[in-house]
């Protein structure tokens, strides 16, 4: 079977160049006589991979020196708890924007540690937009403001970086590395790896130094940003092979021209897909146009009875994982960095042909 176009929300497809390079180096990494999988994380070879990974990420994202970069485990879900554990630092409250299903999860986890002020919520509107900033209710005593820069399930993406006078914490799991970003505007950025960065198993945390100043000594070491930073994210044995794959992904992105180059491609891919949806009588996306996600494009069919056939025929044509999230239904096309533009073109062509024949 030839390789399919995988529109999954994550884990998602990886560039063939990256997979081939991993294949070439699988048994014998750079003449070391061993696979990266077999290397000690304390050995010279692996330490060189780890250093390169961090320096590539710093360079690709323009991460300033006063930020620590951590490569952790436990996914973004662990961060939902680690953020209040580490950042409250004696404060009682934290502000959260509820823009979709993932924000909501982050909020319910934070409630175990502090009072949560939901500064704005899109829930009543069915999460179809980002609540207007003028209406956000901020608590100036809060330790931070958390938001989800791209809601993977609902397909709502912030098109701006909020400036609110509180340390800004962003869950970028599904849009990190997809658009140019000024890291200086954030206190902390986190993201699971399995969408835009590589396979599942690594969580990137980028955190400004000053937020680590007064750590709670009672925190379990493995959950402490300061301790993880002090041990170069090797407090426990890291996900070594995944770190290596992440670094191959960053090489691929750099070769392509970096984040600004991929952003242009992402704009082109998502614009043409939304255009095809808007031009059709069969497909519909009801997200506020200014906040439509470039990464996750959900849409419904005006005749929902056609959905099973749509998905089956798409799969027969080599396009898989298009089923919408169970809470939303319909179709969701996740078009992360590794989805080639011609993959989106093929999907659009298929959608048009399906509409013409139904
Ligand atoms: C925006 C967002 N946040 C958090 C998560 C949870 O990530 P993980 O499964 O890595 O814990 C996901 C997973 O899809 C996500 O899309």
Radius of gyration: 21 Å
- In terms of DSSP E residues, the strand content is 15-25%
Spatially, the strands of the biggest sheet line up as 2-10-9-8-5-3-4
Small molecules bound in the structure, each named once: pyridoxal-5'-phosphate
Mean pLDDT: 97
Counting H and I runs of at least 4 residues, what is the number of helices?
9
Order of helices and strands: EHHEHEHEEEEEEEHHHEEHEEH
Query: How many domain modules?
Result: 2
The number of strands is 14
* CATH class placement of the largest domain: Alpha Beta
Can you identify the CATH superfamily of the largest domain? Type I PLP-dependent aspartate aminotransferase-like (Major domain)
Summarize the main sheet.
Answer: 7 strands, mixed
Ends apart, CA distance between termini? 28 Å
Secondary-structure-based class equals alpha/beta
Name the overall outline.
globular
Question: Into which percent range does the helicity of residues fall?
Answer: 25-40%
Can you offer a commentary on this structure?
With 358 residues, the chain is α/β, with parallel strands linked by helices. The chain has two domains: 17-255, Aspartate Aminotransferase, domain 2, CATH 3.40.640; 258-356, Aspartate Aminotransferase, domain 1. Helix content is 34%, strand content 16%. It contains nine helices and 14 strands. The strands form four sheets. The chain has a seven-stranded mixed β-sheet with strand order 2-10-9-8-5-3-4. Strands 11-12-14 form a three-stranded antiparallel β-sheet, with helices on one face. It has a two-stranded parallel ribbon with strand order 1-13. α2 (44-61) crosses α6, α3 (75-87) packs across α4 (101-110) and α6 crosses α7. The mean pLDDT is 97. The protein binds pyridoxal-5'-phosphate.
């Amino acid at each position: 079977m030839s390789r399919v176009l995988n529109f999954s929300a994550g884990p998602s497809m990886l560039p063939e160049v990256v997979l081939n390079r991993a294949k070439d180096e699988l048994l014998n990494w750079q003449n070391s006589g061993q696979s990266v999988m077999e290397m000690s994380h304390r050995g010279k070879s692996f330490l060189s991979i780890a250093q390169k990974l961090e320096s590539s990420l710093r360079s690709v994202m323009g991460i300033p020196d006063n930020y620590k970069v951590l490569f952790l485990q436990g996914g973004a879900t662990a961060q939902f708890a680690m953020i209040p554990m580490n950042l409250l630092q004696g404060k009682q409250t934290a502000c959260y924007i509820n823009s979709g299903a993932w924000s909501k999860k982050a909020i319910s986890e934070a409630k175990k540690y502090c009072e949560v002020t939901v500064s704005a919520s899109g829930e009543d509107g069915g999460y179809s937009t980002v609540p207007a900033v003028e209406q956000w209710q901020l608590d100036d005593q809060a330790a931070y403001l958390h938001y989800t820069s791209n809601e993977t399930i609902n397909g709502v993406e912030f098109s701006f970086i909020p400036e609110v006078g509180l340390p800004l914490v962003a869950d970028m799991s599904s849009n990190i590395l997809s658009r140019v970003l000024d890291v200086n505007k954030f206190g902390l950025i986190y993201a699971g790896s399995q969408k835009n960065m590589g396979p599942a198993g690594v969580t990137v945390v980028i955190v400004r130094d000053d937020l680590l100043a007064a750590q709670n000594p009672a925190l379990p070491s493995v959950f402490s940003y300061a301790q993880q930073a002090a041990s170069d994210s090797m407090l426990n044995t890291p996900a070594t092979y995944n770190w290596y794959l992440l670094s191959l992904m960053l090489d691929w992105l750099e070769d392509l021209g970096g984040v600004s180059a991929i952003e242009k491609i992402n704009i082109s891919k998502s614009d043409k897909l939304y255009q095809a949806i808007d031009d059709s009588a069969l497909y519909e996306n009801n997200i506020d146009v200014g906040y439509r996600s470039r990464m996750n494009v959900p849409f419904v069919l005006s005749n929902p009875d056609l959905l099973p056939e749509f998905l089956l025929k798409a799969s027969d044509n080599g396009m898989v994982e298009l089923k919408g999230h169970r809470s939303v239904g319909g179709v969701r096309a996740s078009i992360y960095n590794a989805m080639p533009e011609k993959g989106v073109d093929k999907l659009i062509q298929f959608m048009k042909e399906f509409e013409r024949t139904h």
